[in-house]
Protein: Four helix bundle protein
Organism: Akkermansia muciniphila
Amino acid sequence: MKKQGVERELLSQLLRSGAGIAANLSEAAYGSRRRDFFSKTRIVLKEYSGTHTRPKLLHATEA
């Protein structure tokens, strides 16, 4: 895959991850049970962890 294609794919993944984080935070805030809140919050933390590495990968492709 060419550099531009890799960058485009990483940016696309970053946008999807950010949207997923926002959606899960909203669901956590308006969940009906504490268990739902903690479950969605854990998902958000996992998604953030994965999203956090994507800009580093994008930067690494700028060689």
Summary: Residues 3-58 form one domain. Residues 3-29 form the longest helix (27 residues). The chain has one domain: 3-58.
